[in-house]
Amino acid sequence: MKPSAFDYLRAETTQHALEALARGGEGARVLAGGQSLMAVLNMRLAQPQLLIDISRTAELNTVRVEDAHLVVGAAATQGSVEWRATLADEVPLLAMAFPHISHFQIRNRGTVCGSVAHADPSAELPLVLTALGGEVVLRSARRRRVLPAASFFQGMLMTAREPDELVEAVRFPLRRPGARYGFAEFSARHGDFALVACAATVTDEAIALAVGGVADRPVLETWPRLQSKDLEEAINDFSWKLGAQDDAHISAQYRRHLVRQLGMRVIEEAK
Amino acid sequence: MSKTTKGAVSCKPAEVMQRQEQRRITLTLNGRERSGHCEPRELLSDFLRHGLGATGTHVGCEHGVCGACTVRVDGVAARSCLMLAVQAEHRAIDTVEGLAPAEGLGDLQEAFRRHHALQCGFCTAGILMSCADYLERVPEPSEAQVRDMLSGHLCRCTGYTPIVAAVLDVAAIRARARPAAAGVVTEEACDA
User: Fold this and answer.
1) Which residue of A115, A197, A201, B16 has the lowest C-beta tally within 10 Å?
2) Which residues of A are less than 8 Å from B151 in CB distance?
3) What is the CATH topology of the domain spanning A61-173?
4) What ipTM goes with this model?
5) How far apart are the first and last CA of chain B?
6) pTM
């Protein structure tokens, strides 16, 4: 299908985009890579009055290391981060997750911030951001604020972003010394949204497991270094706590099974 | 088309383009400057086909899943159904029409024919454009890498095996055409 009619603005600068967002209110949507939004528009699941295109806003097309974080600007594509030669050293979990995110052709144009702003509960980038305790930088004409991932994601496709705010950047903490990482997901076909995805961080003191695709947002749980039997029980408790639901794809029981299996696998991988 | 010069084509991008407004946009299609009119909501895939008559690009699912409409935007393989025509203004768009030289077929197209890598051909234009981008970045991919890249395309005829064979064949042929350069590097390395 084709999108319904909208006004279109190509933002030259961040300021320009923020002013348009402030004026446009709830009827305005930011278009970055468009790999989620354009599909939604084509299917007419959303019919915004104004699209604010930031895909060519040069000052938002940045990827840099700053204050022990990899900071990815709103117009930077997933491909520009994925093909970064130093990524596996900087944010190993991100390097592990990229091959699971849709396809090469989509990552070429899709943005990191766009996926985070879209907040699909099955998407890999919100999961990685949650697993690492990353942050989202929100900017509007009136203020700039930084939210931890845990308070940014508020539910299925819902975030703490106000209508006049732009996800200006996301901040992934760099690899912590001594930390090891694991990532795995199960989907119907390679590149599809995950039915369940798991990301683990293991240090000498703690085990952290983040799960996507089960609750209405990615969820992180942390334990001390438990013995194998205790860990299995802890992950089982976690799988129930996530409140899995039956849906058209798989049953709640199977989702819990995948959390137990993939959860153990990524923790073992990271140990 | 020939009367307008690049940069003076349309109103400033800093202005809001109204929903019913027809804007004349110029882009470079397969190396040639082309112009046409479009509304904000017009998809690049439709603009290429209807606005510029370049019907080599096929439209399948229109939500980015099937890959039939894949083109190169400034060299990078992307879905033309997930992009607006106005976003392509002043950009270089390459489509399947640009793969062949004046006479005959390009090497990718030739390999697809040799390996029977297409039957109905609906998916082929998009697959070729993905391959063109990917092989420039990863000139000698493994079979697993080729299959991963092709996972962004749906083909219901071939079962993919002949497509994989064609892509690997092109990579091998191109690699054989490069031995001189590779040899020089090796010799220098040996001398050092």
Assistant:
1) B16
2) 103, 189-191
3) 3.30.465
4) 0.93
5) 55
6) 0.92
